[in-house]
Structures are given as structure tokens and as C-alpha cells.
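pls read this protein:
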Amino acid sequence: MAAAGAGDELTVLGAWASPFLVRVRLALHLKALEYEYVEVDLKEKSDLLLASNPVHKKVPVLLHGGKPVCESMLIVQYLDDAFPRCGPAFLPADPHDRAVARFWAAYVDDKLLSSWMGIFATTTGEEKAEAVERTLEAVDELEGAFRECSGGKDWFGGDNVGYVDIALGGFVPAMNASEPTTGLKIVDPVRTPLLTAWKDRFCALDAAKAAMPPTDRLIEIGKKRQAELQVAEPEQNE
């Protein structure tokens, strides 16, 4: 990997299971940039995190020469701007294509993630079923977006991993852990064949392998949370 120049040291503050951290680490590995990783305890937030992101107090944070950049997709854009000669460009050159990429990357968080998280925030079977339906509807939309954006190639970005690939790719580890923990298959070979093939290609990337947390640890955490929810649900209904 390439080392940053003098004064350009890169440090990432993160929590190992965070899908947003996966995005940042993936972008760094695709750019072949060296960086130091600092694991943050989100229950006992460090002074460094609080000083680096005093507004939201969240990870990930990129420190570039000591200067903080917050929010995962802003960090991805920043790396594109700060290191244009390293690795592929994540955003396309054409202004319209850039706008389309930003739209679908925002859709991943605004629609897919919000619906997905709603599955775990519900208290009744009916609400959970509705959240699952909304989640799968969002995945169906992304199937169509892939068909449109890829132009028949391997990635949302065409020949290379692009901005939308990184946005959605951050959630691939959670997708892999979803079925063993919740029974929900986020992408399915029958329903979403294009995204299923995309996910397989993503998991085979060296940069993705370096960025993703271990699936078995995510499954362990997921099963623990499911057990806690099952205990909490009867209490809420009393």
C-alpha cells in the first residue's frame, strides 16, 4: 500500500462491526493508502473521538494530517478529492452520472437501512412483517438501479468499484450475517439475481476482505441481540 506524504498521515477511528467503518476502510484499501486504525469503545468514548467529532460523537472519523473528516460517505468523497492519483476514482467524471451515484448512495441509507433497522425496532409481528416488506422493496429498487448504472458491467461504477458499490458494500457483512441470525435473506438469487452476483464479486475483492469484519463474530452478536429482543417483547406486552 502507498504511504501518505509528510504531514499526510491517515488515521481511522472506528468500531469494528460498523458498516460505516467498512465503507471507509474499503475506500482506503481500494486507493492503496496506508493508515492507522484505532478501535473506539462507543460506551466510553475517547477524548480523541470527542475532539474529532464533537457534534455527533460517532465513528468513523478520518484524521488526515490530524484534521478530522466525519461521516462515511463524506470521507469516501474526501479520499477521492485528496488522493486523485491513487487507485480508481469513486465518483464518475460526468456531472449527471455523479448526481445519479449520489442519489443511489443516499437511497441505501435513507430507504434500505432505515427499513432494515425498523425490523429490530418493532414490537409486533405485523410491524415486523411490514418492515421486512419495505426492506425487500428497497432491495428490489437497488436491483433496478444496478441494471441501470452498471451498463451490463460488474459494478454500479461500471468497470471499477464506485461510490454506490462502496455505500452498499458497507452492509455486505450484515447481509451475510442476516440469514443465520434473523432468517431474512436480504439478496436472493431468484428475486435479485444481479445483486446476488454483485455481492459474490464484492466478497471476492481483496480490498473487501481486508475491510470486512469476521462474519462469525457478527452472527454471534446478532444471535445475542435476537435473544435479548425475544426476552424484551413479552415484557413490553405485559
In short: Residues 69 and 165 are 21 Å apart (CA to CA).
